[in-house]
Amino acid sequence: MDQDTSSSRIFLYQDLGIFLFVVALIAAALITALSGNTLLYQHVALIMGIAVASLLLGLRARVGGIVVCGITIIVFAVYKLYSRFAHNTPIEWTAYLWPFLIITALLGMTAFVSYFTQIEGVNSLLNVRLDQLTVMDPLTGLENNRSMVSSLARYMALSERKGTEMGLMLVRLRYAEELKKVLTGSQFNELRHNLAVTVQDVIRMEDRVFSTDDSGSLGIIYFSTGASFLKGRILTAVNNKNLLPDLNEQLLTVDLSIVYKQYDKELGKDAMRFISDVEKEFAYEV
After folding, report:
1. pLDDT per residue over 62-106, tens digit each?
2. Residue 53: closest CA among 42, 39, 67, 43
3. Cβ atoms of 222 and 214 closer than 8 Å
4. 229 burial class (0-12, 13-18, 19+ CB within 10 angstroms)?
5. DSSP strand E in the chain: where?
6. What backbone torsions phi and psi does residue 169 show, to the nearest 5 degrees?
7. Which residues of 129-152 are buried (b: 16+ CB within 10 A; e: fewer)?
């Protein structure tokens, strides 16, 4: 309830800020329109000063906006006083309104930008928290790389303690960037989904499959010593299946790069080191 009230207050202040800014601009426009051509250039210069200051505030340059507003008011006051005493030009009553309009526009835009920045900060924090909590890839239905790292660390600890045989296998699409250029976004996503399903169909129930990026890469935590046979099954299944049947009978060749490494107790529970060691094998995989 307190969070809802705080959010409502922020939106209210933000709305008040933009309301003050708009009112100041409307008043400035009315004064310019009703004052005639004799003061046109003077009023246009003042409106331009407000516009420049507002632009700087919108770009988060608060000091610059304040300086521009201050200079605009000082120059305008000096000009009116000089005209009054040097040329005996009367000061129109609307001249006394301009400093207040400039300050009102400044305050309104400052309030709007300040509270808008707070909202952006809150949204950014929420997105980070959401990203940290998300462990599923919605396209493939697999757990993502973050989940693989945490799961791998647990299985490494279990293997170190009980001597369970396990290893890590990484699967990548060869020429993934070239495929992205040839296929549409939806076609490439369909390819990713079909590849994930195909790999899941050939692994054992106890093995774990993860989607590690948006380029079709997969990670497999397997619990055996027969990684070479698992690699062969994956390659055979992919070669025998049309992963993109909607290409109107055009043949799409999908090549995979697969590397793996058996767990060694020297790795301890350092999942990131284990993943890094396996990734280095891509340099020798042909």
Report:
1. 888 889 988 999 998 898 888 888 888 888 888 888 899 989 988
2. 67
3. no
4. exposed
5. 167-173, 208-211, 218-222, 256-262
6. -120, 135
7. eeeeeeeebeebebbbbebbbebb
